[in-house]
Amino acid sequence: MSIGVGLMYTFTPASDHSRWIGYQALAGVGIGLGMQQPLIAVQTVLDISLVPIGTSVIIFVQTLGGALFVSVGQNIFTNKLSQGLKLYAPGIDPKIVLSTGATSIQQTIDKADLPGVTLAYNDALTQTFLVAAIMASLSIVGSLTIEWKSVKGKKIEMAA
Asked: Is 138 helix (H, G, I), strand (E, B) or coil?
């Protein structure tokens, strides 16, 4: 995930579709693996009576982290977009761009200001991706602190 999102940090307005798709696919595979591994680790390390508690704690933390960092990413995007618009398109009101959204910006903004707005959007997005890359990289701390056990040969008891 950290490599995929780190590569997404390198996006520019001239990046082609193969980079968009490839980097997002790599990040998605990393996210998918990263969401499942803690659940497997909990089932391997904990006693069978503690597995439901451990699993629910893992799911809670994953959900809470996602909910919190969506707002962190949104705040960074909004702040960086406003800063970028002051730099690249000083005549544009950031409130108009923020309320318009990326999909209909071409119909709202004057064609002469569009390259500056595009650069501001790109810079804001890449800074948001940087936060995701840093958080993904920091997840190694949790991986290093867990007990190393093999899942081979573990007998799973059926709960009554």
From this structure: helix
Amino acid letter, 35: M
In whole angstroms, give the CA distance from residue 86 to residue 93: 9
Structure tokens at 1: 């995930």
Cα 48 from Cα 139, distance rounded (Å): 25
User: Cα–Cα distances in Å, from 110 out to 87, 104, 116, 123?
Assistant: 17, 12, 11, 20
Mapping DSSP to helix (H, G, I), strand (E, B) and coil, where does residue 1 land? coil
Residue with tokens 């001239």: 14
Q: Both tokens of residue 69?
A: 């960092």
pLDDT tens per residue, range 119-140: 999 999 999 999 999 999 998 8
Could you read off the pLDDT of 5-51 as tens digits, one per residue? 999 999 999 999 999 999 999 999 999 988 888 898 888 888 899 99
Q: Hey, what are 116's tokens? A: 């500056």
Q: How far is CA 85 from CA 66, 82, 114, 119, 156, in A?
A: 28, 5, 11, 8, 57
This prediction has a pTM of 0.82
